[in-house]
Amino acid sequence: MIRSAMVRIDAHHHVWDLDVRDQPWTAGLPALRRSFDIDDLAPDLEAADIDATVVVQTITTPDETPELLAMAAASPLIAGVVGWVDLEARDIAHQIAVLRELPGGGALVGIRHQVQGEPDPDWLTRPSVLRGLSAVATAGLSYDLLVTPGQLPAAISAAGRVPGLRFILDHAGKPRIARGELEQWSALIASLAALPNVAAKLSGLATEASAPWSVSQLQPYADVLLTSFGASRIMFGSDWPVSLLAAPYSETVAAAEHLLRGASDSDREAVFGATALEWYQLPLHPMESRP
Questions:
Q1: DSSP helix/strand/coil, 182
Q2: Which listed residue, 118, 199, 217, 257, has the most CB atoms within 10 A of its CB?
Q3: Diameter of the chain by CA atoms?
Q4: Exposure class string for 260-288: b at 16+ Cβ within 10 A, else e
Q5: Using 50, 70 and 90 to split pLDDT, how confident is the model at 5?
């Protein structure tokens, strides 16, 4: 296992095959209403000097994660898989153990649930969910927080009540950039970042902004993340192919690099690799690291 800061990682992207399973949420999004495979992303990764990726679940079904693990087993580009299990199930530990025995099971690095779609803003603090999160921690995996700003208080509470679990906030908690809402979100982010077991992704910001978006529009939100968490707890994620709604892959990477233009070399290396390596405990092969 490698812990080299020179490895560049895209810590958040998706794949799906509409011939295998529908993605109903794409019905009103023509740009996303097709299948996306790791081979589609590969040329963009090479052009952006990205060595490895973390692929993240998209659908709340147990069938998707084995498919992602099999893809990781077949592709040297995929270093980690964030899958789905039923957090409220009594046999969650067994579910995780079964996944780890599948082809590619060693690439399972985290679990995620579509909390943003839960009508209960306090879903994360349900006793059954907290029990599930504790099981994820016991398994040595991380947990991706996919929440909206209104769900951040529950995320703060859950992270505080399961201190042994590495929480990773997706898409900065989806701030309402298009509305210019900054102050309340900033305060919540500061509270979340005060917990040492939470990291965050520099991802998904452009799709939350108004079109046409600009780096200057995103900068205050990126600055809050960096100030609150520090580079050692921030990781870059493209959110491809959802990011295509806002920009091509190359522009998404360029925007992230521009948002970090005032950071030190070591901080940029952390955001583009070292943080993801550490927080996801990625099992990279030597061939995937830079000389």
A1: coil
A2: 199
A3: 48
A4: beebeeebbbbbbbbbbbbbbbbebeeeb
A5: very low
CA–CA gap between residue 192 and residue 186 (Å, rounded):
10
Distance CA 140, CA 195 (A): 18
Write down the residue that tokens 């190359």 correspond to: 250
What pLDDT is recorded for position 244?
98
**Domains along the sequence of the chain with CATH:** 9-288 (3.20.20.140)
pLDDT in tens, 29-58: 999 999 999 999 999 999 999 999 999 999
Q: Is 263 left (phi over 0), alpha (psi -120 to 50) or beta?
A: beta
Asked if the model's pLDDT at residue 83 lies above 80, the reply is: yes
Q: Which amino acid type is present at position 256?
A: A
State how far the Cα of 269 lies from the Cα of 56, in Å rounded to an integer.
22
Predicted confidence (pLDDT) per residue in 16-27, tens digit: 999 999 999 999
Q: Beta strand pairing status for 142-145 and 198-202?
A: unpaired
Tokens of 42: 């590969």
pLDDT at 291 over 60: no
The angle formed by the CA atoms of residues 33, 39 and 40, to the nearest 5 degrees, is: 40
Q: Which residues of 2-35 are buried (b: 16+ CB within 10 A; e: fewer)?
A: eeebebbbbbbbbbbeeeeeebeebeeeeebeee
CA distance 285 to 198: 26
Average pLDDT over residues 55-65: 97
Tokens found for residue 137: 């921690």
Q: Confirm if 248 and 45 have CB atoms less than 8 A apart.
A: no
Q: How many residues does the chain have?
A: 291
Position 3 pLDDT exceeds 90: no
